[in-house]
Input
Amino acid sequence: MSKTISAKRRCIEYLIITFGALLYGVGTSMLIDPNDIAPGGLTGLAIVLNRVVGIGTGLWFWLMNIPILILAIWKFGMRFTISTIYATSMISIFTDFCTKFFSDYVIRDKILGVTFGSALTAIAIGLIFKCHATSGGTDVIIKILRLKYPHVKTGVLYILTDIGVLFVAAIVFNDVAAAMYSFLSVMITSFILDIVLYGRDGAKLIYIISDNPDAITARLLEELDIGATHVFGQGAYSGEKKKVIMCAVKKRLSPMAEDVVRDEDPNAFMIVTSASEIFGEGYKSYFDERM
Output
C-alpha cells in the first residue's frame, strides 16, 4: 500500500472516529445522562461521579481514561493508542459541549433514553472499533480480553464488565428502577454493537447427501448463485461412496435452497446448522481486524 493511500485511509478513519465520537456524545448527553441511566463501563461511572462531584460527565470520562490509556500504550503500542486518545478526547469534548450548549433539546424520557441513547452509543463504539481504535475505558480492557479469549464476542464481554457499574448506580441514584434501566441499556448496547461489528450475516451451513447431487448443485449455482463444495464421503454401514454437497447460505436464501433439494430429491438427507461468522467471497474479508 502506497504512503498516499495509507495517509488517505487514515484521514478517512479519523473522520469516522470523529463522527462516532459525536454520536457517542449526543447519545450520552442528550438521552442517557439526563435520565439517570448508567450504561456500564467508564461512561456509567462518569455519570455516577457527576452526581457525586459536580464536574462534567465528559471530563470525568477523560480523567478516568488516563491510567487505561497508559495500559493501552504498553499493550498495543503508540499507533493504536494515538487514535484511542483522539477518540476518548473527542467523546469527552462532544459530551460536555452538548450538555452545555444543547441542554434545551435534552429528552427526559427513560424509555427513549434507554433505546435511542444506547443505540447511538453502540453504533459509535462499533464505528470507532472498525477504525482500529477504541472509545477508551472498558473498550481497551475488552480489546485485551479479546486477544486472550477470541471466541467470546465483544458484546458478551461488555455485559460481563458492566454489571458492577449497575450496582453502584442503584446505590448512588437510590433507585432500583434506574439500575434496571441501566441494565436494559447494557443489553441493547451489546446487541446493537454485535450487529455493527459482525453484521447480520449469520448464515446457514447446509450439508446435503443425495442420490442426485449434480442436479442439486447445478440449481444452487444457477438459480440462487450459491457456491457449493463437493465432499466425498462413504456410508459407514453400506460402504457406498457419496458426493456430499456442502454450502454456506445467507439466511434469506436458506428456505429457497431447501426447496431446491426437496424438488430434486425428496429423500435427500439434509443437515442445516447455523454459522455465526463466515470469511471469504461474499462474506467477511480474511483481512478484517478481529474486534
Notes: Residues 3-32 form the longest helix (30 residues).
